[in-house]
Amino acid sequence: MPLEGAEGSGGSFEYFDHAADLGIRVAAPSLPELFAAAVRAVMNWIGPAPKGAELEIEVRLEAEDLEGLLVRWLQEALYIFQQRRAYVTGVKRLKLDGTRLEAVLLGRVWDEEDRRSFSEVKAVTYHKLEVRQEESGWCARIVLDI
Amino acid sequence: METRKIHDYLWEIPQSGAMRVPGRIYASPDLLADPKSDESLQQVRNVACLPGIVKYSLAMPDIHWGYGFPIGGVAATRISDGVISPGGVGYDINCGIRLIATALTYKDIEKRIPEIVARLYQKIPAGVGSSGAVKRASGADLRRILEHGARWAVEHGFGRPEDLEFTEENGCMAGADFEAVSERARERGSTQVGTLGSGNHFLEIDVVEEVFLPDVARVFGLEEGATAVFIHSGSRGLGYQVCDDYLAVMGKAMRTYGIELPDRQLACAPIESPEGKRYLAAMAAAANYAWNNRQVIMALAERCFLEALGIGPAQLGFRLVYDVCHNIAKIERHDVEGTEEVLCVHRKGATRAFPPGSPQIPAAYRAAGQPVLIPGDMGTASYVLVGTGRAMQETFGSTCHGAGRVWSRTQALKQGKGRDLFREMKDRGITLMASGHRTVAEEMPEAYKDVHAVVDAVEKAGISRKVARLRPVGVIKG
Fold first, then answer.
1. Nearest C-alpha of chain B: how many angstroms from A100?
2. How do beta strands B23-26 and B57-64 pair?
3. Architecture per CATH, B4-477
4. Residue B401 catalytic?
5. Domains in chain B: boundaries
6. Domains of chain A
7. Least CB-CB distance to B66: which of A20, A47, A110?
8. Residues on chain A touching B413 (C-beta within 8 angstroms)
9. How far does the CA of residue B253 sit from the closest CA of chain A (Å)?
10. What's the helix, strand, coil split of chain A in %, to 5?
């Protein structure tokens, strides 16, 4: 059954220690908000949002399962960051249908000056990956390779 | 977790449950991580569950918690019935290091180091999202880079033909296939040719501070007091994408082949399966990309030295000592209980360390053994070791790769608050330039295990011997 949402303020994230890498725990009332919060967590680690030109980017993804979809979603944000030189600042629209996702991301272009404040995230791993529904909503755990 | 001491520098995790072989960890007691906060030993156990694994799931003294495989992990699987696991190579395929010797003593250029570092920082593309010295590699160029490795760089005026002999696999792994690398991976690679990267990647100027084995050091061309250069980098976004692509492929393949493992990051497929073969071909292509990058960066570094010092190439004497990878899977022949077998050796944060007489190492080094290059943290020391016969017998010819982290990034950032790390490095006699200030905090020396202790452990375990210790005097980071 498709779930629709936009960026809500209903999601939160925190980082947890992982020797060479970085762990993220995310929680949100709904699944779309969970996905939005997860991408905020990744971008927040990379650095502060730049002030360059705004743009919208359409994204369509699918995966084998929900956890895999979350990984693909975050990998897409990293790809957009590197190749399009756009920092994802928000999620305008996000539709989840089983293991398919359609979204419109909001972003800002970054430049050479912005680069000095950025820290690299190489990849999103499957290590300790978890997406779980609880009474209060949804939570996820992801480890990033940095 | 139960561990059994084999000797002072070797511990065993007995085989139990789903483990197919025991685990073996090379470390001194001090170096063994506290299992409560570091799951690296559990990861050694998980790797021991890989189908077709032979002898032991191994870990080197720089072991720390990775994802799937521990960093510092070595595992060999039989070609005939074993698996290949992209997680056993890592996202940064052929993250590796090369060492360049020069004809200059440190005393010759001590006062000029800040100037050389400034020029290196200006000319060598580094840092998050940096684009390449080669602006955008064409499709034809990228195909040649992926299938011919560092040879592309030499053909385009970056370095010399003789550099290839002093690179592991001669700078090009056989079997690389451009078609096995996804469109997206190629796109990411096209803009990053000749880039250093970020995080723990670096280019470093060092002085050879102490020589332990003068005969071997002489063969390698290392003299006390000489200036040398280390380059540490990998396959950049192309490699990360290849790993990600094939983790997804392998995740599906595991269901086809009925493989179950404790960690999804250990996703794998039989080596002889279409998925396994295709990954190996893509991995080789990414490895070639990394070797090409290090070759380009070396040539750019040489130009920086020449321009800064106003001298010619003969006077500088920039010469590649060796280049090793420490995130890779290799098809190698090894003795397994008295029979020679063809194995797939995964080295994830571990270095090949072949002994004297190995045909795979340059003829000039064959009597001495393979150079092993061990970077420490940016403020301490780096080492050159040499491989041994004991490594060949016990660890599939493998040894450690570096210092290994003890602090997480968040811990390091907390500790770095309010500190002027550039000043601290300067006080240690090191000129540091970095584009990412946070990266410097994350990479502070205290965040790493003591490289001296790691190297002592592999020497006392007999799997490598110390040849020389080098001290950093200038560092550029992304």
1. 15
2. parallel
3. Alpha-Beta Complex (3.90)
4. yes
5. 4-477
6. 3-145 (3.55.10.10)
7. A20
8. none
9. 12
10. 25, 45, 30
